[in-house]
Amino acid sequence: MRKAGPSSVSNNLTEGESSTTAVFHRQMGHKALTSASGFRRTSWPNHPSIKMGGKGPRQVLQASAATKGPRRLTEVPAETSQHQAMEKITATINANLLQCCVCSGPLTPPLFQCTKGHVSCSRCCPADGYLDDEVECLMCDEPETATRFRAMEHILVGMRMPCPFRQHGCAKMIPYASVQAHKASCVHAPCHCPISGCTGYGSKPLREHIRQDHPGVVRTIISPHCLTPLRMHAHEQARMVRLGDSDGSPEFLVIVGQYKQLGRMLSVVRLVDESVVEQDFKHRIEVVGNAGVLSLSGETLDAERLKEPYKASPFLFVPNETWDSPEGIRVFIELK
């Protein structure tokens, strides 16, 4: 094996440049000469400085700084060099830099950038410009051409982000372009509770959340196809209703929400989870007041996990004058 001459390359590469060089070597499949300065020089397999002998794994030559004068080359297993080439970096970046200049949403390819630096995502560019790789910049006061921003597209393709719900137990690393889709389907996403004042909970079904975290909610058993009276108090925010007295009977939640400081809105949802058999139910609610009877009939919606804040639809509006009765409110409910 020949001795390598003194290294004339100074160690002035930054960490980012070193990582880029390592990836380049892995993709090209070349061997690399590593000097004591940390700089790698590309070398072909038949380079005279490498002795090709035997049928074992090829070696990568690495300079040693143990002696003075001309540096001697020592052998490093090729597996070590490949491991170094595959190393990844973890960086922190301002999230605003990954937002579209037009809609302020996340950048989704194809991306376009004008000469003034405005970056537009695929949602803010006309589809006709995709084939020509240029569109009109919507941020410039005067017409300005924006061309395909492929460099940023390559960066986004290689980016992986931790799940936004990692504090709730999700350990997945998500491609940047798939973060929004993952958030909508992640089983660890925090859920919303329809009961006013509840700040939310983990990924368990709403049925289990009501049982465990709202023990103060009154539970009532009623019979199907029967208009059953419920004596509710003005402070009640929900009532659990079971259609039958068996453990597997369908359970419903009568929700009491505030409506613009003018009154209450009553709605009904069926509490379900993976063990509940699919079945359609209808409900009817009546509230008897001094002014008469208020009534609502409709299909009953199923609620397993609420990924968004609960919005009652449809609901029965009850004015404050009726709801705030000191002796309680007469609410009738029928389920079938």
Automatic annotation (TrEMBL):
Name its GO BP terms in alphabetical order: protein ubiquitination
Q: Fetch the InterPro entries from UniProt.
A: E3_ubiquitin-ligase_SINA, Znf_RING/FYVE/PHD, Znf_SIAH
Q: Which GO terms describe its molecular function?
A: ubiquitin protein ligase activity; zinc ion binding
Compositional bias annotation for Polar residues: 7-20
Pfam families for the chain: Sina_ZnF
Do the record's keywords include Zinc-finger? yes
Enumerate the SUPFAM superfamilies for this protein. Answer: TRAF domain-like
Q: Which Gene3D superfamilies match?
A: Zinc/RING finger domain, C3HC4 (zinc finger)
Residue span(s) of domain SIAH-type = 158-215
Q: Which UniProt keywords apply?
A: Metal-binding, Zinc, Zinc-finger
Q: Name one GO cellular component term.
A: cytoplasm
Query: Where are the stretches annotated Disordered?
Result: 1-20, 34-56
Give the protein's recorded name: SIAH-type domain-containing protein
Organism source for this protein?
Answer: Sorghum bicolor (Sorghum)
